[in-house]
TrEMBL record:
Name of the protein in question: RNA polymerase sigma 70
PANTHER family named in the record: ECF SIGMA FACTOR, RNA POLYMERASE ECF-TYPE SIGMA FACTO
UniProt keyword list: Sigma factor, Transcription, Transcription regulation
Assigned protein family: Belongs to the sigma-70 factor family. ECF subfamily.
């Protein structure tokens, strides 16, 4: 990964990966606060447990931690929903009245066209199977190699390549109007 050169400090690595890690977590959890929590917890865990590892290993370790944290958050959210249904709670998380309040990131200064494009991209990512989405985000947005992605996801390099190809094909089909037929 481009940001993980030898001699890089852990602080520099975390600063360089922060935004991309947030996007990865957001597209796994679809919840801004949960994504921020997952990134923060993952950064803390990397700092506490793996700071002494060579900087070249940090990207794969960090995204493994982040992926596991996102999985835990999804399980916890599902458990809370089930527990709420069993107790007879009236509102689920989808009915949270605070969820409709716009984030400062999505404030009035953001262009309508950019917002629409982001929504189309998010919709296309949401439609991908989870493993294809994970591979796409790790390869394209995080810059991990196929080998690093396989290590993070605990699968073969061949599976990573297959999921990556399928994700790209599906995204190109869904987003052709956004990029006017551009191919990669």
């Amino acid at each position: 990964m481009e940001g993980a050169s030898t001699g890089q400090t852990l602080g520099q690595f975390l600063a360089s990966v922060e935004h991309r890690a947030y996007r990865f977590a957001l597209y796994e959890l679809w919840d801004r606060e949960a994504a921020l929590d997952a990134v923060q917890d993952s950064m803390l865990r990397l700092t506490e447990r793996y700071a002494d590892r060579p900087s070249a290993e940090w990207p794969a370790i960090f995204f493994t931690i982040l992926r596991n944290r996102a999985t835990d958050a999804k399980r916890w959210r599902a458990w809370r929903r089930v527990r709420g249904l069993l107790r007879g709670d009236r509102y689920g998380e989808e009915d949270d009245p605070l969820a409709s309040i716009p984030s400062p990131v999505d404030g009035p200064d953001a262009g309508a066209e950019a917002r629409q494009q982001r929504e189309r991209i998010e919709e296309a990512l949401r439609a991908l199977p989870a493993r294809q989405r994970q591979v796409f985000l790790l390869r394209e947005w995080q810059g991990l190699t196929a080998v690093e992605t396989a290590q993070v996801l605990g699968c073969s390099v061949g599976a990573v390549k297959q999921h990556h190809f399928r994700a790209l094909k599906a995204l190109r089909a869904k987003l052709s109007e956004v990029w006017h037929g551009e191919t990669r």
